[in-house]
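User: Second chain of the day. Same drill as before.
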Amino acid sequence: MINLYNIDCMKFMADKPDKYYDLAIVDPPYGIGIGGQVGSNKAQWTKYENKEWDTLPPDDKYFIKMKRISKNQIIWGANYFSVFPSRCFLVWDKMIGDNNFSMAELAYTSFNTPSKIFKHYHG
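Assistant: Same format as last time:
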């Protein structure tokens, strides 16, 4: 069964016991201030309201709480903030070539295995 909650994640995590979840897979805000304005056609950006959700990355408390309530973690956006040391980073090679976008995304994992590369076209 899957349950969805519309709640502040910090409040949600505060109520969970240690190691409650087997795996946390998250993609938190990177703090790069894009606010929904992505894509190559800047003329279309005017259709979007300015968003504040991506102005700051999560603070250390977020990562510490998440690590406390989960046995393992996969945290996308590891190239935008340092989390914890890891032996197994995931690398998503977007196969998009050299342009204004990131050619790859990094994910921190808590797994004790060699790093992995996943190649998938991001078009």
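The longest helix spans residues 60-69.

User: Great, on to the next one.
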